[in-house]
Write a structure and sequence with these properties.
57% of the residues lie in helices and 6% in strands. A hairpin with a 2-residue loop joins strand 1 and strand 2. The chain starts with a helix and ends in a 13-residue tail after the last strand. The chain has one domain. The protein has 72 residues and is mostly helical. Strands 1-2 form a two-stranded antiparallel ribbon.
Amino acid sequence: MIELERIYNHLWTLGALANDVGQSYILNGFLAVRDEVMNLNAALFGSRVLKNAVAIGHNAKNITIDHMPQIK
């Protein structure tokens, strides 16, 4: 879960860097991929931004075998 959060945050950062140098179409590409990752979060954990998915010392929500078809 933390890795998924790190991925969508990096996608935003890379897109913002491209936008800063005038390449807004690259930002749009990164945002489209970021949206797919966030939709996967919603499908797996019930929240696009992983709200209440991680608790201190353990995961509050887990991926089961039933979630495997949703992961591409």
